[in-house]
Amino acid sequence: LAEHAGRVLVGRQPRYPAHRYSALAGFVEVGESVEEAVARELFEEAGVRATQVRYVASQPWPFGGSQLMIGCVAPVESDALTIDTNELEDLKWVDRAGVRAAIDGAIDAPFVAPPPTAVAHSLFRHWLGD
C-alpha cells in the first residue's frame, strides 16, 4: 500500500468487479527480499519510488495453491504516476475519508474496497488505525 501526503494509492485491474480498487500487488522474484519486491512492484506498476517498506501482515492466499500474501505499507517520494496498462486499468490517490467510506461500504465512496478476506482490506484498516 503506497502512501503519500495523507493518501494511499489504489489500483484497478480490468477483471475486478465494477468500481473495485485495491492495493497494488505482485510476486517476489528469486533472490529478492520482500522489501525489494514491494519497491519494484510499486515502481513497475505505478512509477512511484518507495522510500521505506514496512511489513504489516500476511495470510495464506485464499483461492488455492500454496502462496502467501504479504501486506506492506510504503511511503513514496512523489504522487506522480506512470501506469502500467498491461497490469492495471486505473490508479488513483485516495484520502482517509475516502478509504473509510470504502471500508464502510458507503454509497458515495470513491471506490469499492476489497473483501475482508483480502490482505489489502487489512492494509486499509491498518492505515486507518482500525
What does this structure look like?
Strands 3-4-1-2-5 form a 5-stranded mixed sheet, sandwiched between helices. The protein contains 3 helices and 5 strands. Helices cover 24% and strands 23% of the residues.
**Shape, please?**
globular
User: What is the N-to-C succession of helices and strands?
Assistant: EEHEEEHH
**Number of E strands:** 5
- Mean pLDDT comes to 95
Structural class: alpha+beta
Task: Round the Cα radius of gyration to an integer and report it.
Answer: 14 Å
Number of helices: 3
Q: Helix coverage percent of residues?
A: 10-25%
- Low-pLDDT sequence parts: none
Strands of the widest sheet, in order across it, are: 3-4-1-2-5
Précis, in short:
This protein has 130 residues and is α+β, with helices and mostly antiparallel strands. The protein has helices at 34-46, 96-103, 119-128; strands at 2-4, 7-12, 54-60, 68-75, 90-95. The chain is built from three helices and five strands; from the N terminus they run ββαβββαα.
List the helices and strands and how they pair.
Blueprint (H helix, E strand, L loop, with lengths): L1 E3 L2 E6 L21 H13 L7 E7 L7 E8 L14 E6 H8 L15 H10 L2
Parallel strand pairs: 1-4
Antiparallel strand pairs: 1-2, 2-5, 3-4
